[in-house]
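Example 3.2
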Amino acid sequence: MDWSDTTVQSTFRDDVRDFIMTRLPDRYQGDSGEGEDFSGGWQADRKSEDAKARGAAENWAGALSEKGWVAPAWPKEYGGAGLTVMEQFIFNQEMAESGAPSVGGMGVSMLGPTLIVHGSEEQKAEHLPRILNGEVAWAQGYSEPGAGSDLASLQTRAVRDGDEYVINGQKIWTSGAHFADWLFTLVRTNPDAPKHRGISFLMLDITSPGLTVRPIIDMGWNHPFNETFFEDVKVPVTNCIGEEDRGWYVGMTLLDFERSGISDAISYRRGQKELREFLVSGAGKQFTRQDFSVVRKELADRAVETEVLFNFAFRIVSIQDSGMVPNYEASVNKMYSSELHQRMARTSTKAWGLYGNLWAEDSAYSPMNAAHVRDYVGSVPHTIFSGSSEIQRNVIATRGLGLPRG
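Structure, written as tokens:
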């Protein structure tokens, strides 16, 4: 296989690299590219009390906006760049290599495409520009305590009352709601319809009366997500995207986004490189377990597995570039990536022996500021969210291997 760029792709890659080198604020230089990490990054900086953080977020959003690269896949007529799938792949690859954070979050990746396809002209005019200029950040209200993987079982109700819907219910795992300005959500508007019917897609201001956002602190003491309660929350009917009771199909809308997962592969490769360099440094040797040979082979295995993940990413983008839609291949990629993340976290923590138990970032005895033990704890839900490994295996079995359903 030939993974080298064409002349046109090489020129575009140089353009992206030069742009990042000259326009990326100092605050994000050398960062790990938080992207959708709602515990920090651009999404938090835009609301920070620190003027320097806010300035960096505004400057970076403005720089990307000039190129149309806030939303690389959106059509140009809606303020995007209209990049091809392969151009998006190159763009994402260079952003990840430099650690540059993305801008727009779920507004760019989920709500924007939904509005472009199903929204009214008034809805597009109101919301798309504010996503692109970084004025409004969005959170997703899908999962509920009793409706996660089986999302169509959701029970949050929206009752039509004249020109408004009145919403009552609860959402959970609402990532980034504490940084968001607006929420898009799926609610049940017809309880008598089959479960995939009778659902509507609504947008609402997160400060709406009756809407309460409560933090969920994970076992790593971080605050990435929340639970959201609706108590007689009123939403204008004009905030319904698409047809009433047809929101399930609206919510499944996607533009031609590049979804190879190349950012994960690059992040893993960078993390392993930093670990290896520290292990052999003077500072790292004092923490390394005496029987280091126990983990040497594991480190080699993780490096090989990361390169396999790179090839999965190239495979998926090649499928998309050929005009086809990845099916079971995407499930293979997601499952492999999340399980590799957990293996990497275990191996990295194991490298330090008993020092790997230390949690305090500022302790002189915590190797690499306790990054690996924190990653170990944080990696636990990776095989659950965004489609659990069990679900991915079912997709691979039925769609990839042609096995009968149980």
